[in-house]
Queue: 2 jobs
Job 1
Amino acid sequence: MIVEGKQKIWADYQKDIPDDHYFYVRSCIRQSFWPASEVTFLDIVRNKLGKDFYENAYHTTCGGIAYHSDSIPQETAMTIIARQFALMHESGYENYVCSCITSFGLYTETLETWREFPELEAKIRQYLWDSCKKEFAKPKYLAHASDMIYKFRFDIAKQMKFPLVNVKTGKPLKVVEHIGCHYSKMFPSKGFGGAEYPYVLVGMIEAWGGEVVDYPERRHCCGFGFRQYFIQGNRGYSVSNTHKKFESMEPYEPDLIITNCPGCPYFLDRWQYVIAEQTGKTYGKDGYGIPALTYEEVAGLVMGYDPWDLGLQVHQVAIEPLLEKMGIPYDPKKKYQGVNGKDLGVPQCPMHIKSV
Amino acid sequence: MDFGFCLSPSSHVKMDSVDLTTFNRLKETNPDVNTCIACGSCTATCTAGNFTEMSFRRLLLMLQRGKEDEAKKMIQRCMLCGKCTLVCPRGINIRKILLDITR
Amino acid sequence: MKENILIIGGGAAGMEAATQLQKMGLTPIIIEKSETLGGHIAQWDRLFPAFHPAKDVVDKMLDQVKGVKTYLNTEVIDIQKDNDGFHAVLSNKQKIDAKAVILATGFDIFKAERKQEYGYGIYNNVMTSVELEKFFRTGKDERINNPKKIGFVHCVGARDVKVCNTYCSKVCCTTALKQACEIKEVFPDAEVYTFYMDLRMFGPGYEDLYLKTQKDFDVKCVRGRVCEVSEDMDGKLVIKAEDTLFGKPLKMTLDVLILMCAMEKNKSINPIQQKLGITDNSDGFMQNKDMYLGMNSTAQDGVFVAGACTAPKSLPDTIGEARSVATQVYNYINR
Amino acid sequence: MEYRFKGHLVEELYKDYRIKEGMKACMNCGVCTAVCPAAEFYKYNPKNIVNIVARKNEDDLEELLKSDTIWYCGECMSCVTRCPRANAPGLVVMSLRKLAMRSGLYMLSEKGRQQYVVVKDLCSNILNYGYCVYPRTFDYETHKEFGPVGKWINEHLDDIHARLGSNLDGDGPGGLRRIPKESLDQLKKIFDVTGATELMEQVLGDAHNEAVKENLTDEEYFMEVYTKNDPEKHLNH
Amino acid sequence: MNSQIFHPFVLPFVLGMAFVLTYCLVGLVRVISQLPKDDRKKFWHSLVTPKTAWANIRDLFGDCLFHVKIWKRNPVLGYMHTAIAFGWFMIIVIGHVMLFTLKPLQGIEVEGLQGMFTNFYYPIFFKYFAEETPVFAFLMDFFLLMIISGILIAVVKKIHSKIVGVKRVMHFGFADSLIRFALWTIFPFRLIAEKTNIMAFWWLYSIDLLIFMCMLPFTRYMHIPTEALFILLRHAGIKVTEPRKGYALAELYSCPSCGLCIDACPMSVNDKMSGNTSAYFMKKLRNKDTEESQRIAETCLMCGKCVMICPLSIESCDIKFSQRASVPYNINSDHSYLFCHSERSEESQTNNQKPRVLYFAGCMTQLTPKIMRAMKQIMEAADEEYQFMDENGGICCGRPMMLSGKTAEAKAMVEKNTELIKKSGATKLVLSCPICYKVFKEEYHLEGIEIQHHTQYIDDLVKAGKLKLNKGDVNYVYHDPCELGRAFGVYDEPREVLENVGNLKKAKSEKELSICCGGSLGSFTLTQQERDEITANSVNDLMFNNPDEIVTACPLCLKTFARKSPVKVKDIAEVTAESL
């Protein structure tokens, strides 16, 4: 591997986004599965870095998941998006940041399609007026929330308490980065680093002391596939694709996976459990599996947030071996507690994949 | 636990582990197996191909991609009429190869 | 009649045009930016389809242009046209007046790193056809260590909207098969694969080369564009493609991957080209008048083109054009 | 068989902006198939789909729309990155799916009929809660892969979301907040004017009719479609 | 004359004779025991059936002694063979006549076992032991000289075969050369011994006989005794079942390696390919060289010319088929699909109720649509009620499968086609492809349906006045397709048709001597280049009288000739249709 070659590509694919004053839009999946990640993101940018990230109570889903499950027409998704843009405009913002990769892809696609087919934009403008009596303005800058963390990665590094380093060996942790397909595969220039060697997560890993693992199936999809997951009969597709990725990364013995799409960590996490249940095979050392985390969770960890505040207990793959490697203190008793130490019981232990 | 789905087998042709014994043996007696340009003339003219999936150019590929069982199944359809040999632009003696595959 | 003819570019086209013009009694002047004449062909080891040593041809051409006035390490930095003809300023400050100008500036090789998914410049064992040719010439390349499996990828930087080159680069197919045979000669035990979309064997003896590649050299031609390349733990290359004739995705591990890079117009001539008022065509090559009777002429009276500056061309094409441009210039001078 | 747009399928398909964007000309190089996650596991080859669409043959298109083939794609759009002709097979598939649904041909394939499940679940989530995915409708029993932790989350949903800082069903901003009624109403209106409501009602109606035909309740039919899984039919060995 | 009853020089002969008789007896028992039970019964039966018995006698004399067939082909060679075989036969006969009419040793009565022993060698060395009468002496000398004249021709043939009209001869090994040398010298030695009575020549004569007879079983001269058995077996109507057993074994040993088939074989266009001819095949198989014999069996075009030209009519093609069949075909052919996909053919049958003629173009004709079009024109012009059986593609007739020795596998196709033909209700089946014609004639059971090749059919139509043809002035040459000509003797019909449309020129080799086009499906292994050479040779032969067009009656010949012919190649149907 010739790193200079990659650096050259990274240098070529840098997008220009401002570092403040954003209209923040949530992700259906992230808030449902990794609620603490969005909380952490806003805490970091607002409180730790002092930036202006505004959230409007009236914004909704972008409809991206329904759109990519072919449940709603393209015009519907575009009009919902136009409504979000209208909310941004009404709130006095020009920069738009979303938490979801599917959204990010759909926003990008929508803006590009409108650019190519202005008559479609006009049609959507009419739809929005007919349905909501709103008018929208297209955002000046569009970013994904991981772009922001990437942009602030050195600021975060300055506040870093636990770098991505194995405290026992002193060596950097081996980190697999997994980029959501819709981040830059459709429009390579819209993502940091482009489509083939995206830099958005690599930049974070490097800045926080980790070592990036580049394995053959790095670019492969996690296997979500929308309808291929939502319908039980199709889930074989989804788990098989994750399986393929893990088989490919296994020889590199990665310590952790970091993702920028809210869905991917769910699949990379839960499918490890399913693969273990079905085949008895586990990845990572000692049968614990390889933790698949969101970039907010990783940022939170290195900045010294409490692992249970970050919601790491909602992952099926045990997080404790990683915490120990990084030397992060945690209280095992508090892992499954509710607010104010409320006893919520303990999840059952799976058959094959180890839990602490 | 029954999840209602399971891992699917990969259909990738894994060139690293393809067993080429039959093809290599064939190549020794019929060096022209290498010269197929997949033009499809054989398939288009095939008498059996009129009724079935029989396709010699595909059959050769099957042998090269480790699908020997499929190939042998396909040969069962062949009527040995030899039209394929007549139309092959590369002059491959297809009928001979078909017979040799079975030996 | 001792009119000066300015020839920009001392490759095959420039040299051959100069030779012919001199025989016609005109005074060709070659301006070559590098330190030797010969252009790309001088960097080549052997020529398709019959593995003829390139040096043979280049030496003969060099011998023929011995008497031609030649400026090496020199570029044209300015050029003006008036009623007397053209007035060029060279990088060595010298001024040259000429009645006609021949642009024989040739091509550049597509920068393989632009086709990111192939990982040139990132994965150690991905190399270009030009580098492989150098290996044949010198016998040295640290990437080539008794490889067991070698792959060739066709159409790198050609027929590809994503790199803005939609044209076919014409010579790469034949070159790939030639090189596949040659590497098989060096490493007879290696398995050699070529990944092609169409094998465009357009010339005399080229289809025979294809047949020979298959039959005598046992090179395996797979129809399908390589989709992505990655590196495994051992530094070997994992490639994915579809075997489109089989209709199934295919995966394999290779020791070396050769990218058959396309020709692009040599862009270092752009400033002079602009000054002469010659535009590029949709493929990014110089626009000639038309591709039939006006192939050597341009929008600018007195400015002629020859060789790969107007489109990807083989050596015989280029020599043919160089000869025809000489006739065109001769007629222009004597009009 | 009678279906909507009979004889005009090609015409109707080519009205879709995603065809305009994603369907240029194919040179059969196969990069889309090589990278496609679906092609590895399903009897699926995106290149072939693009070819059929490019052919503009009404009969071929009808066959395609009736088949399971168009439903295998996971819409990851990996194919879009690589295509040397700047086609977007993923977008082509999306427009095919839409036409299959609107024409009614989707009901003829096992995988097409599954649209009932996603339309019903996702549209009701959007219209009722303003989200595509909503934890209270994400049930462990039908998502066993949610795992023991998922089961635990389902059992203590409010406590866990409270612990992790969600504003589950609360007012004002925050994760999983209750979307104000006026916003939900606007979503409904958007659905109405952009054709989503029509599509949704059509799919639910088709499913109901099919359920009646099969002598099932809507719920039973839903579960049948949701769980049906015939590897031999779909998998590519 | 010597007054002895014994001299040691007779011993070599006696030994040799005893050996060869024993060997032949064992061989005879072996061959007969290897025959399938029914065949054996047939054999015994044929020996006592007057008709076959008469044929046996006729051919034993005609073929074994007088070599009638060789005379027909090449009188010089005919004389050579007759001189040696008949001459030898006669001196043995005369020897025995003398033994019983003249008392060999006056005054000495030799009886009992001793008598049998002396009678065994007396006729062979008669002159040594007894006096001949002048008449017998003349006859003996006459036949001896006749043999020697034959031998002289053989020597000339050996030195320069072209003088006697033979281009290619077999190449033999040491054993064959030695026995040939022995054969050549037996009679000169006998002549010298008889005339000079020098003891050494009597010894040489006897030793020559020993060499000849001891080597006989291991060389081509084994054909001399085997031929008789072969003739009997052939007349019994026995067919080849296995390549090296029973009847085939008799055929193998009957082949005299005369080499006539070498020149006849279309493959003999160069030295390398002439090694693929039947004479070599028989020799290799005789010598149990299975690999080579299998190779030749797969290379053979199966044109049948060697069988036709063979002085013994040895069915070498049948042996090759059985040799091919002996290599297992490890695929269980599955043609069950034929029975599931019959709608297509049935579809085309609905439009025409009970046609008189059913036309089956066949696979190869599908590649030459002009033949199909011409046939349609002809049938329409003749106002025939016909139905086109395989207009949208059909099923192979099964012949190629049989050619590869897979008779059982071919059955599915035969059955399906039979079903379709019978269903049509037609009374006449017209075929365009001689390959099909052969198999339909021989393997199909289509009772009540007349099977014709289109040459015959067109000829019938013309003769019945249903087709009016305009005679033009084009010069045609007609090529006889192997499977129409040699196989079924269809020689006159096409020529008569052509006489009606233009001028018929002769080829150099015609009718049963016609040379295979080289495209034959019979061969599995010939390369395109090899086939091209054969074709070029065949075309040259056809171009002997500079015709304007070559006409044939087989789609495969048509396609094959078209590659190499300097003039237009047409099917007879095409020529006919053009003349309507």
Note: Chain A touches chain D through 95 residues (CB under 8 Å).
Job 2
Amino acid sequence: MTVNEMLPLAVIASSLLPGMVIFALPEARVGLRSVLNLLGAMSKLVFVILLLEGVARGEVYGFRHTVLPGLDLVFKADALALLFVTLSTVLWLFTTIYAIGYLEGSPHRSRFFGFFSLCVTATVGLAMAGNLFTFFVFYELLTLSTFPLVVHRGTPQAMRGGTVYLAYTLAGGALLLTGIVWLHGLMGQVDFVHGGSVAALGPQATAQIKVVFLLLIAGVGVKAALVPLHGWLPQAMVAPAPVSALLHAVAVVKAGAFGIVRIVYEVYGVEYAQSLGLLKPLAIAAAVTIVWGSLRALTQDDLKKRLAYSTVSQVSYIALGVALFGPVGTIGGLAHLVHQGIMKITLFFAAGNYAETLGVHKVSELDGAGRRMPLTSAAFTIAAFGMIGVAPTAGYVSKWYLGEGALAAGMDWVVAVLWTSSLLNAAYFLPILYRLWFRPPPAAWPAEHIPARGWRETGWLLLAPPLITAAAVLVTGLFAEAGWSPLAWAKLIAAREYLQ
Amino acid sequence: MLMLAFDGLLVLALLWSAWRCLASTDLSRAVVMFIVFGLLMALAWARLDAPDIALAEAAIGAGLTGALLLDALGALRSRREGRDAPRETP
Amino acid sequence: MNRFTRGLAVAVGVALAATLVAALLELPAAAVYLPGAVAQHLAQSGVEHPVTAVLLNFRGWDTLLEVAVLLLALLTLLTLRGSEAPVAEVEAEPLLQGLARKALPLIILMAGYLFWAGAYRPGGAFQAGAVLAAGAVLLHLAGLLPAWAVPGRLLRLGLILGFLVFLAVAAGLLGQGALLQYPPALAGNLILLIEAGLTLSLGLVLAGLFLFVTGRQA
Amino acid sequence: MTEAWLEPAAWLIILPLAWASVAFLAGPGRGARLAILALVAQLGLALELAADLTQRGARMHAVGGWGAPLGIDLMADGLSAVMLLLTQAVALPIAVYAQAYFAETHHRHAATWFWPLAGFLLAAMNALFLSADLFNLYVTLELLGLAAVGLVAVGGGTAQITAALRYLLVSLLASGGYLLGVALLYGAYGTVSMTTLAPLAVGQTPLAVWIAAGLMLVGLLAKTALLPFHFWLPPAHGGAPAPVSALLSALVVKASFYLVLRLALGPFAMMTGTAAGLIGVLGASAILWGAWQALRAQRLKQLVAWSTVAQLGYLFLIFPLLAADGLALQAGALQVVAHGLAKAALFAAAGVLMRATGRDTVEGLAGVAGRVPLTLFAFGLAGVSIMGLPPSAGFLAKWLLIDAALKQGQWGWIVVIIVGSLLAAGYIFRVLRQAFLLAPEDSHFQPVPRRLEWVAFVLAAASVLLGLRGAELVALLGVGS
Amino acid sequence: MSTGLLYALSGVGLFMLGAVGVIVLAHLMRKVLAFNVMGSGAFLVLVGLAQRTGQPDPVPQAMVLTGIVVAVAATALALGLARALHARTGGVTLTQGEDGD
């Protein structure tokens, strides 16, 4: 086995193995568990950096293992894979730190961190999947490893949320599987290749190909929370805050969106998908989702629920970017994959801090929280501006490219959608900001768990992650044109994707 | 011809004793009919040039099985209910 | 079981029987004729009686497994009876006792004859074992032999011995090329050895099927 | 000469017969250590046989040196090797499990003759997988049936006795049908050797042979608990002690399925079309009905037992799909193996859960996730294979089934497979969900030996990880077919 | 019609009689009796059909010897179980669905 084969496996193993050991650890071994967690996250980061550097150089990383005759488990760490792998690796590191602080003293942490590691394993595996089958394997593993996290609290609401989550995702998995097997029946193994491979089937299979596309997109669309398949996401907000971060930013919805990218670009090929007329409906579905999610977010009083609907809306920017036939839209969509991740994780970290520190769960209880928790609230504010698309945040950059892409593709109505969405975003975020900063704090918080000590408004493990990610929101926006930015990487991918 | 008639009668006797054994309302009569059936079977085996089976049928089929049945009949007739508390294995 | 399923079972049974009778009446002759093969190889089998040759040589593998079936039935009955002692003892019946005492030597003699005859003419370990078992049942009914409780070491040895001998011979002959592949010169003696073990053990096992169960409720 | 001495196929039958006998000789409750040691050897033998077959192809072992049709042939090919491997691979961990399980005082009664019974059971299965003689197969079927009934009865409770009796009667009726079929075949062809029969049975098939095939197959389907003959299975498998349930559900029902498959591929290859389609429909109904009952079951082991009814249904979907490409056959073999390992794990885990909670209800599991996390993890992993999620062996089986159905344009089966998988997810997560609930205030949990937990985990992990080695299994299956 | 065939045909009758009996009869003892009748029927078919040409065939005869022993083992087991059930519940039948769930 060569180094180029081993490196992708190392990325997977760096969370899988610590996860397995953590499962077996007794509850009381907090120190060892934390060390294992961080060691895994750090080593994964090192491997990813090695990969990034190699891929930028033009190295090819991949691994293939035959499971059945004509059915291979394939990994390939190409530029697109690494975009997602890097995002989840970095955010996993912060989320782990955050979770260690968040769950301090709560029961069943071995189980929690075990599944947490499995969840990230599934995400990076899915990102590096080299064919539809491998993608499906990790897609389902992701479902299974997140379920125990969603129901972690063991309360009846958590169970309900978990059940809804499972019902949606497993049904989605079934659709996806049907599509994959169907495609297998038509053309054998479906590896992800630039420009796609389905076009080779020729015109007589067109009708089947369209149905398969519908099945595949519906399958991944469940996790991407495309309307009307989004119902699980607001329900799943009963999970602890680090899990929400995982669901909304690092893993689950991203996995769905990423699946759409792979399917359109590397299974069907964007040109072929366009020629079959498949992209227009996708764009419409994405647009509907964007507006619908924002509208629903307006009326939510529960802070995490409002953020959840915001995710429904924002993730579809990625799908929208894909559906905008052309490189500019692609760049916007892919960049948003990263940007949405860091913005949304900041918001959830902050929401978790309000809940954990002050017992505040509702928007209406946030009055004056900015004075009690200025650092958290500052991070929240930056991310919220990013979501609205205010310059110079990361959100502004992706929206800009999406708008440009829409104009280039001649789909002017998309610009209107983007504007509407931005206005709606402002409409549900600005009131929160107003309450945070300009309303007087109440006499007593609903349940103040952690007292303020000087400038440390809450535990430092809870405070550091949102501050760092909020800074990242700014930096990726300000230095979007730098060579190492997500935008630059998205351009690299788009260039390779549209080369032919 | 004579043998064929004998075979015919034996077959009828076999079927009749089997029927009586299964249809009889009285269980002890049924068991007795079964032993008769077993002995008739032994005869049939002899007619089929199978003396080994005839011996085995007489000794095992009619004899031992008959003893088992009669003994079980006695046990099942006695009315002693629920002597053992049911042992549940989880 | 309701009336409908009962009627259905009867109807299916009758229809199947009728079809089968019709099928048997038109059945052509068989393509393979095994009695010929048996006769041809009888000389190498070690015995002169064809049924015994099939039972212990040509298809000895069936017989080995069949003994295991008997042992299994016994094992399950032992499981059911647990560790309790037999409840009821049979009262001694003088008349039956006298008869049994007289019959016993005769029964043993008959079993011995059947065992010995197996090699040449009808008879063999199964019939001999059955006769022995019948003798044991008779003794029990006469009140001369109590029902059996949990088997002691000696009884267990007796129960399993025939099977173990058979198994050892089968495995020991693997060196000849296959399971139970008797060397023609030794075949007769080996079969006799197996039959001797089986006569004893089958007698005990068949008796056990009765004596381990009788006189108790469970 | 030495070569013949070491014939693994022969020793795979001799060895369990021998240790069963010695365990009996040793006395009540004895024999666990011997059994475990011997099972290690048996697993080695099965592996050796598999390696040997892959190298040198399928082979015959003429018992007594006569050869068919006069004598009895043992035949080892890829399919037998897969079954043998599965049997030993499940039996060994379950034996380790049983030793610890029966060490508890309140299980002592069940343990009195467990080991010899288990030895005969395994010998019967190994003999069955190797036999190429229809009458010899009848004897092995009876041996297997009686051993299984004995094991169901070892619990000694009323429910177990009733279940054992019902099982025995079904089993006897079924083997009666099989025996009549064999009698008819012998009458028609003068032989009961499968290899001699197979070429004779093609072409002009007399009516009696059709009836024989029907009788034998229906008998075997009843023993495999295919709907509508499934009624005996849930009480028998759900009522027995956990290690017994594991052996029965994982292995015993597969033996009769194996025989159905053998017959359908060999002497009864003429049974295609309507008959195969009918079996497929019954299988499909079993998938749906079994899963539905599992969703509704109140008791944990009943749930797992109903899941067996459903999972066995998948095995019968292959009959309408059997084709030259071998996909359906591979799917069947993979499903047998995947379900064997996963179901053994589920029953092992259920045994732990019941001991931890002291109850046999799904309801009573609330909060157990915190107490025996490893077991619950095992239950979930095994569930992955049962649901047919990747990368488990169960997934590969369903993948191949769907693939085979697609290739032949038989769409209906695909819907059944997918709906069945979703229903399976329903009942598996029903258990997991309950276990993740917060423990009620008044709940007491008993400590459980760690060994029980680890066995469940190892079996479950095997059923999932095997999915990564499907290619090897398929290659082995290809030997001699 | 040869002797063998005659007995084979009667064997068919006995088998079906016994098989239907096992299914239809409720009392466990009767089920056991029916099972034995059924087995005898199958044995008659086996030997009778093989010997329909008039020649004795030792192969099915040996098989039937094996079968008889298996049958007595099964009978003893069934009776033992029936007695155990009777001792625990006082019943002599299998009631339907007492533990279905």
Note: Chain A is about 75% helix and 5% strand.
